[in-house]
């Protein structure tokens, strides 16, 4: 009868009362067929102080790396791709990268999990591009962008190897952004890129679109809330703040303001009509300062016509605008011009020998530009008339109201 030994210490097994426990020695298993790695040599009988493999009965080398028997493998080819760009066609060319799978059950479970994750990733891409508005749910499977996405998920046959080439979700996202459907959806980014501007992220692009839409609604011009208009504004780098200013000019300061302003705007700038008034102010080619100048010039012209005066020429109105005259200043100034111009103009004709000419242009210089030289000339004409009247009637004195009967009559009182 053989004695069993502890595989670690080499001592024989002893029961509780000190008797030696005897067990039959288990013969080492026969080597595996030649197609699989064979176990190491069997050491019998067990040597004291040696640890043994409980499966094969082989002694274990505790200092050497542990090796695990390898099962037979079945090699198949699957691929991921990396995108390269052709220098001649600028088209993305998927480059196959071969990986190895195995028929081992545990490995197959892992691969199944990887495939499920791949399906989920492509589903996330579909949901994301649908939210972006690139995929039209109404078209269903007929949507061209969705068809492209589905094709990328299934992979394609490499004509060189005849093997299926699969595209990963990250690369698929890059390839999808090169499709016409994506470029048309975010056309403003294509315009920005052509202009040397940074492109916006999809979320940033859509956020700006929503802000534009809110502004168009607030100003009552919802017809402009469309992707084509959004793309035009984004491509020209028009912020929502600037759009608000443009709409305020078009709607509040022109369309809904005094009709005289709109009429004067059309007179100065024939290209602006009622039908496309708002559209004109949204044209990115016209900068905001240019539009503001046109509106202010029209307001100045309208302020003159409101007082029964002739509107200044476009050149004169734009000159006054550049000098800082605004609508409020124009209304105040032209009210004063209207008060003194008729009589002062008459005096400049009566006293032509003085060389003083006082017409609307001079009155504008005095009351809209604060030209003191012109103001002195007007007062000089008034003094000449008062002196002439005093010489004829002899009653200019303490009570001027008592005897004004000269050419100006009472109309000059309080105006000089």
Number of strands: 4
| Estimated share of beta-strand residues | 5-15%
Tell me, rounded to a whole number, the average pLDDT.
75
Q: What's the alpha carbon Rg, rounded to whole Å?
A: 47 Å
Helix count, per DSSP?
Answer: 15
- What order do the helices and strands follow? EEHHEEHHHHHHHHHHHHH
How far apart, in Å, are the first and last alpha carbons?
145 Å
The computed structural class is mainly alpha
State the oligomer.
Answer: single chain
Sheet with most strands: 2 strands, antiparallel
* Order of strands in the sheet with most strands: 1-2
Low-confidence stretches: 14-23, 62-100, 393-416
Query: What percent of residues adopt helix (DSSP H or I)?
Result: 40-55%
Can you tell me the overall shape?
rod-shaped
Describe, in plain words, how this protein is organized in 3D.
- The chain is mostly helical and 416 residues long.
- Among the domains are: 1-70, no CATH class; 77-185, no CATH class; 331-412, no CATH class.
- It is built from 15 helices and four strands.
- Strands 1-2 form a two-stranded antiparallel sheet. The chain has a two-stranded antiparallel ribbon with strand order 3-4.
- A hairpin with a 6-residue loop joins strand 1 (77-85) and strand 2.
- The longest helix has 28 residues, at 105-132.
- It is rod-shaped and about 125 Å long.
- The termini are far apart.
- 21% of the residues are buried.
- The model is unreliable at 14-23, 62-100 and 393-416 (pLDDT under 50).
